[in-house]
Amino acid sequence: MTITASATELSAAATQRSEEAVGGLPYIEDATAVAPRDARDLSKVFFDRLQELEEGTHEYQYARNTLIEINLSLVRFAASRFRSRGDQMEDIVQVGTIGLIKAIDRFDLAREVEFTTFAVPYIVGEIKRHFRDTSWSVHVPRRLQELRVDLAKATGELSQSLDHAPTAADLAEYLGLSQEEVIEGIVASNGYTAGSIDAPVDEGSEQAGATYADRLGELDPALEGVENVHALKPLIAGLGERDREILRMRFGGEMTQSEIGAELGISQMHVSRLLARILTKLRTELLGRV
Question: Which residues form the RNA polymerase sigma-70 domain (predicted)?
Fold first, then answer.
């Protein structure tokens, strides 16, 4: 059935096709083709029935999914506000759909408000949250994200009145913040955008034609050893005196198990068992800290 009729006609047609109705609701072959003007009336019918259905049932899922599909025009309407980000439009619509789903799950007919009025703020809010959380090259606390906006606005206004770029002290006084807070905000703002490591270095550089990636150093394998030693130090300090001495002779003095046994007056087999016990203890405690 092609959706070209009104919502009332759809309901009537669905009644005639009772064998195709789901949970007493109208059967809609292509819910995404429902005109926005008809979606409002149909939404009321589906919301009214949705409140009576048990969550998780086939009928409940049909009602919920149909509500999502017939109201996708709200997502497209909200997404059109961000048409300047054309290359991200597909992502914007997907994120907006999440907002629509949240609105559907939280809507209550008892509110006596149109669903469109209730849903649009959810959809727009989800899209704005997406930009706020993904526009930063690195993650920074929410307060610093908001402070970046305040600093940018204050910088523009002060530059006009002072006739020069404002200092941290100027910004702090203007915003009623401490200089430390302003400096923290300025540093955090550096994480809003990031340059590509494949970008060429300055033309005046001796390495003309090279990229920033060419300047990156290799990973120093010794760093992992430093981390391991730092982590093991307190664990070794917690061992008994003889256990520490055995470790010193085996790994510090590079003595064999036989030489350690001769030094301590015990057998090589006994040294082997002691080393196994000590290393197992250290390994277990080290992994427990990860």
Answer: 91-104
CATH for 142-215? 1.10.10.10
200 forms beta bridges with 211
| Residue spans in the chain of domains classed CATH 1.20.140.160 | 222-288
Backbone angles phi, psi at 200, to 5 degrees: -70, 150
Give this prediction's pTM: 0.43
The answer to whether 27 touches 21, Cβ cutoff 8 Å, is yes
Pick the more confident residue, 288 or 167: 167
Which CATH fold topology does 222-288 show? Butyryl-CoA Dehydrogenase, subunit A; domain 3 (1.20.140)
Between 143 and 223, residue with greater pLDDT: 143
Tell me the C-alpha distance between 56 and 205, whole Å: 65
Comma-separated ranges of CATH 1.20.120.1810 domains in the chain: 7-134
In this predicted structure, what is the pLDDT of residue 112? 78
Overall fold of domain 7-134: Four Helix Bundle (Hemerythrin (Met), subunit A) (1.20.120)
Long-range CB contact pairs, 90-93, < 8 A, 24+: 91/130, 92/127, 92/130
Does residue 176 come out as left (phi exceeding 0), alpha (psi in the -120 to 50 range) or beta? Answer: left
What does the pLDDT average to over 129-153? 72
